[in-house]
Design a protein that fits this description.
The complex is a heterotrimer of chains A (204), B (218) and C (242). Chain A is 28% helix and 24% strand. Chain A is α/β, with parallel strands linked by helices and 204 residues long. In chain A, strand 1 and strand 2 form a beta hairpin. Classes of the chains: A alpha/beta (204), B mainly alpha (218), C mainly alpha (242).
């Protein structure tokens, strides 16, 4: 399960933000995306996930192998933990939610509505959802924002276990997740503004 | 994909006011009209088919902007777009969910409201049949409009503006079917047209709506 | 290459800048000739008196109301398939023009009908169809205004234009059915052909030509403005990014 990106250029709101991005991510490894706010981490991840078309370059990845997760976690407040997970399991065509419930200590909370969970429990539910997709490549955008130290630790542990099982993770984050991995600094890939003489940049 | 349908219906029920809101609005419109037009039963009898159809149409409009907006806001739409289900299928399932929670109750409530408006006795069957055939189109067209406006805050008014002209053919044939039926005339043509419009909408609009959602997720 | 050269904004601006003055002159010439001839130099109709002369405005306006939408449809398709921004902006530019033509057609239609019907409005099938078309224009323009990202707006309005076109044709048929369905007879024909003898015909053709030229002139003008707006926005965006 390899993700290979070659010379990728992506845009936000029609304006190019990154260009020439190249990297490879293979099973068992994680890659941290670093860079100042606004550099285009979210744009890059959404482009990789298929939510936006790329301006140029190639993304080579086996089909149906990525799971995308951003801060908005797609969990419904009025559905229970089990109902939420079962929904995503059916959408992604995987069997059963039992192992996800166990891995994140949610078995006792299975029938509680999501709105009655604490912040930490909600975060565990989000991670469980990721597990339920059954996909090997996790593409995560700032997954630990507004989490306390214990939850960050739990998250780091979950990612490490995922890597040990052969999965991979591409994570945009400022925060120290408690383990080391390769880092990709995005500042060098900032898209250069086009030549001022060419008025048709307005029509890129 | 059925999972999407079941989940949306469960959400609508648990949100409270899922089934009730559209029905209540339908009732209000039906009750207000005599106050505006006068209680003369002859007048009411003549306009009853139109009022009932317009009332159903407006009641459908009420919950349209929720079809995609909730999922857009909490990230579910992003996740569904990257999931192995076709986005067109998601659109259809959501339109069906809207119909079951809004259109279908209207169909069932319409005869009762028809009594309030002195609908001709011959018209009741045709009222139910025409609404049954036409309300799915209202949900599907509404889903298309909702897909266009999903990213907008307060897109509700724009949604109505976009969708109402698209409702005109369904409204015309639906109300005509009831009026003719109430007078004992043949209803085959308007009903066939109505059914044709509904099936064409269900077959073709999901593609347009899915395209619109993809644009809005970019 | 031919016509696709003008998809390049620079080339479009250059060419339209050269052509525009001539177009304006032609437009004014055609309109003045047609309208003055039609209103002042043709005899009065024995049946409808002088109100029939309003066809010199009503008929061309109605024709252009529909042609404008057709042009928008073609421009939208070109945008969706070939992604030429000039095409998308031309569609956006044409919409308010088409909407005003529709409004003119409706108002002149009312003026024409009033002496015959005794009321300022009748739900005659043709007039009603134009009313529905007016609503479609409103929705299209409103959607352009509501979406911030210009490329997304172009995509969404193009889809709306396509779906709207199908429904507009459907509505035309439905409205015909709706009107003759219940009230047979009393079909007041607004058919210009029925009232036109040869002596009316030539000024009418000139007016139609004038309106076509008017539409072309206004669309070119407004598309140029849209292109300039877009350039300004791009320059401002670049300044913001530093």
């Amino acid at each position: 399960m390899d993700l290979r990106v070659t010379d990728l250029a992506c845009a936000r709101g029609g304006v190019p933000v990154l260009e020439g991005v190249s990297f490879a991510l293979s099973g068992g490894h994680a890659l941290f995306l670093r860079g100042p706010n606004g550099i285009g981490k979210t744009t890059l991840l959404r482009t990789l996930a298929g939510l936006q078309p790329a301006l140029a370059g190639e993304i080579s990845v086996p089909p149906d192998s990525m799971a995308y997760a951003a801060h908005a976690d797609g969990l419904k407040a009025t559905l229970s933990v089990a109902e939420n997970l079962r929904f995503w399991a059916r959408v992604f065509g995987t069997r059963g939610i039992g192992h996800a419930l166990e891995r994140f200590n949610l078995v006792d909370l299975a029938d509680r509505q999501a709105q009655n969970l604490s912040a930490g429990q909600k975060r565990r539910l989000g991670l469980a959802r990721l597990l339920v997709t059954g996909r090997p490549i996790w593409v995560l955008d700032e997954p630990t924002v507004s989490l306390d130290v214990d939850s960050v630790h739990l998250f780091g542990q979950a990612v490490r276990e995922h890597l040990e099982e052969g999965g991979s993770a591409l994570i945009a984050t400022h925060i120290d997740l408690g383990f080391l991995a390769e880092e990709l600094e995005l500042t060098p890939f900032k898209a250069a503004p086009r030549d001022l003489e060419d008025f048709d940049e307005a029509f890129a | 994909m059925i999972a999407i349908l079941i989940r949306d219906m469960a959400l609508a029920i648990r949100a409270g006011g899922g089934f009730g809101l559209g029905l209540a609005f339908f009732l209000i419109v039906t009750v207000l009209v005599p106050f505006g037009v006068g209680p003369e039963s002859g007048v009411l009898r003549e306009i009853a088919p139109g009022i009932l159809w317009v009332g159903a149409l407006l009641a459908c409009l009420l919950s349209l902007d929720r079809i995609f907006a909730l999922d857009y806001e909490d990230g579910s739409l992003d996740l569904l777009a990257t999931a192995p289900v076709p986005l067109e299928g998601v659109v259809v399932m959501k339109a069906v969910a809207h119909w079951v929670t809004t259109g279908l109750p209207l169909v069932l409530a319409a005869p009762v409201l028809g009594v309030l408006l002195n609908l001709e006795s011959g018209g009741f069957t045709w009222l139910v049949v025409s609404l049954l055939l036409g309300t799915p189109a209202l949900s599907m067209i509404g889903a298309f409009g909702a897909a266009l406006t999903v990213g907008l805050k307060r897109g509700g008014l724009l949604l109505s503006l976009l969708v109402l002209p698209l409702y005109v053919p369904t409204l015309i044939f639906g109300a005509l079917a009831v009026t003719r039926g109430a007078q004992g005339m043949a209803t085959a043509t308007p009903l066939l047209m109505l059914a044709g419009i509904t099936f064409a909408c269900l077959a073709l609009l999901p593609f347009a709506a899915a395209a619109a959602i993809r644009v809005n997720l970019r | 290459m031919s016509i696709w050269e003008y998809a390049n904004p620079k080339k479009f601006m250059q060419t339209s800048g050269v052509v525009l003055p001539f177009l304006v002159v032609l437009t004014v010439a055609a309109l003045v000739t047609g309208l003055v001839w039609g209103f002042f130099f043709t005899p009065e109709d024995y049946k409808q008196g002088s109100t029939v002369k309003i066809i010199y405005i009503h008929v061309p306006a109605a024709m252009m109301a529909i042609n404008a939408w057709a042009m928008m449809l073609v421009a939208s398709l070109i945008w969706l398939i070939r992604r030429h921004h000039v095409s998308a902006l031309a569609a956006r530019a044409a919409a308010p023009i088409g909407m005003v033509f529709t409004l003119i057609a409706l108002i002149t239609g009312a003026f024409w009908g009033q002496p015959m019907w005794g009321t300022w409005w009748e739900w005659d099938p043709r007039l009603t169809s134009f009313l529905v078309l007016f609503l479609f224009y409103l929705g299209y323009i409103a959607l352009w205004e509501a979406i911030e990202n210009p490329d997304a707006a172009a995509d969404l309005t193009s889809v709306l234009c396509m779906v709207g076109s199908v429904f507009a044709i459907l509505s035309r048929y439905a409205v015909n059915f709706w009107n003759q369905g219940l009230h047979q007879g009393a079909t007041l024909s607004m058919d210009a052909e029925e009232n036109i003898a040869n002596v009316f015909y030539v000024p009418l053709l000139i007016c139609i030509a004038g309106f076509i030229l008017l539409f072309l002139t206004l669309v070119l003008l407004r598309t140029r403005t849209e292109i300039r707006v877009r350039r300004i926005n791009a320059l401002m965006a670049r300044e913001r990014m530093g």
